[in-house]
């Protein structure tokens, strides 16, 4: 799916004719509006499908035309380049994809559901094990793809099954054992779109769950900046945190344009509201080069970089 879009207006018109009127379609949609880092140029076409049928239609259309597409969650692990994205960005942000249904200790969550809502609903229903999701500003879809984690837990610790759509629009279900899952990645979801997942926790008292959530939140906000960011810029190399490595090298506060290494956390690059994507990319390159030169360690980005 590597073709660039030569006629975005025509593509948007053709897509509009294929999907229901409830599907949202926009042209030249600024991605800075859809990422927590608040940088990124326009997507040629931006789509929020109103149903699985409409999502399947968009995917089949992109496949038939060899049009590049990207699945966007809440954009909290994303750096979109300043020139934007030549293709179709698909976001499962409509309510039909964000439902959370609960039966005893199982939560059936749509891919668009916010992790914070999942954690809050789990507490309200006395389900323990989801507390760590509380402070991660992503969606279930993004958390599955990234195997997001915090406080010594990760998403796939609590996943019982994942419902997916392939790029031809066919729906199937996976057990986690049949998926390629590792630290901060589920490679299977490079080839499928997560529609939702069944999460399983354990019964516990609302009070104790609430206490753990409060403790996690306090721990997080004691070390994490409030300024716009995409979370951790780098994956942790073996045996040392990337943030600690950057901190120990005295690189906190390093700035390029409007992008700066957070003073609170060495692995966060923050936007002072004037940063461009290029500022952030340059800062990432500089940090990688300095860390490599000083320690021999190659840092790999955790944040996903897309666009032209
Ligand atoms: C302040 C802050 C704190 C953070 N703290 C943490 C933390 O503690 N732990 C942690 O792990 N991360 C953390 N993150 C990073 C980020 O929140 C997580 O990686 C999150 O899971 C990304 O979800 P998202 O919906 O925003 O995905 P996006 O950023 O939109 O997308 C990320 C990836 O997921 C893919 N994707 C999204 N939806 C789907 C879908 N339905 N099907 C298939 N693929 C999909 C995208 O294509 C992309 O490849 C933090 C980020 C910020 C800004």
What would you say this structure looks like, in words?
The protein has 308 residues and is of the alpha+beta class. It has three domains: 8-95, Uridine Diphospho-n-acetylenolpyruvylglucosamine Reductase, domain 2 (2-Layer Sandwich); 98-211 and 214-221, 2-Layer Sandwich (Uridine Diphospho-n-acetylenolpyruvylglucosamine Reductase, domain 3); 225-306, UDP-N-acetylenolpyruvoylglucosamine reductase, C-terminal domain (Uridine Diphospho-n-acetylenolpyruvylglucosamine Reductase, domain 1). Helices cover 28% and strands 26% of the residues. It has helices at 8-18, 52-65, 115-124, 140-146, 206-223, 242-248, 277-295; strands at residues 24-30, 42-48, 69-72, 78-80, 85-91, 100-103, 106-110, 127-128, 149-150, 153-154, 159-166, 171-174, 181-182, 185-186, 192-200, 202-203, 255-256, 259-261, 269-271, 304-306. The strands form seven sheets. Strands 6-7-15-11-12 form a five-stranded antiparallel β-sheet, with helices on one face. It is globular and about 55 Å long. The protein starts with 7 loop residues before the first helix and ends with a strand. The model has no long low-confidence stretch (mean pLDDT 96). The structure holds flavin-adenine dinucleotide. Flavin-adenine dinucleotide binds at residues 36, 70-78, 92, 111, 136-139, 141-143, 145-146, 148-150, 189, 193-194, 224, 229-231, 304.
């Amino acid at each position: 799916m590597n073709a660039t879009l030569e006629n975005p207006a025509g593509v948007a018109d053709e897509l509009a004719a294929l999907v229901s009127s409830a599907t949202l379609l926009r042209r030249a949609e600024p991605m800075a509006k859809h990422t927590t880092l608040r940088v990124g140029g326009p997507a040629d076409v931006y789509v929020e499908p109103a149903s699985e049928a409409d999502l399947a239609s968009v995917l089949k259309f992109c496949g038939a035309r060899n049009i590049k597409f990207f699945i966007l969650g809440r954009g909290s692990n994303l750096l979109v380049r300043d020139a934007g994205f030549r293709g179709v960005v698909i976001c499962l942000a409509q309510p039909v994809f964000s439902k959370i249904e609960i039966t005893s200790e199982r939560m059936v969550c749509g891919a668009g559901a916010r992790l914070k809502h999942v954690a809050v609903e789990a507490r309200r229903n006395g389900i323990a094990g989801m507390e760590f999701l509380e402070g991660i500003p992503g969606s279930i879809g993004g958390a599955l793809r990234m195997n997001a984690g915090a406080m010594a837990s990760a998403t796939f610790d609590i996943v019982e099954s994942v419902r997916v759509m392939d790029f031809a629009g066919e729906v199937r279900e996976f057990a986690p054992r049949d998926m390629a899952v590792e630290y901060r990645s589920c490679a299977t979801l490079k080839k499928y779109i997560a529609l939702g997942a069944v999460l399983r926790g354990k019964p516990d008292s609302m009070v104790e769950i609430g206490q753990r959530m409060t403790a996690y939140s306090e721990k997080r906000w004691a070390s994490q900046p409030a300024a716009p960011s995409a979370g951790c810029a780098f994956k942790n190399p073996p045996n040392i945190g990337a943030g600690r490595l950057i901190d120990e090298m005295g690189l906190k506060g390093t700035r390029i344009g409007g992008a700066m290494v957070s003073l609170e956390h060495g692995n966060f690059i923050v936007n002072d509201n004037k940063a461009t994507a290029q500022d952030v990319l340059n800062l990432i390159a500089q940090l990688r080069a300095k860390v490599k030169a000083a320690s021999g360690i190659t840092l790999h980005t955790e944040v996903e970089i897309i666009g032209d």
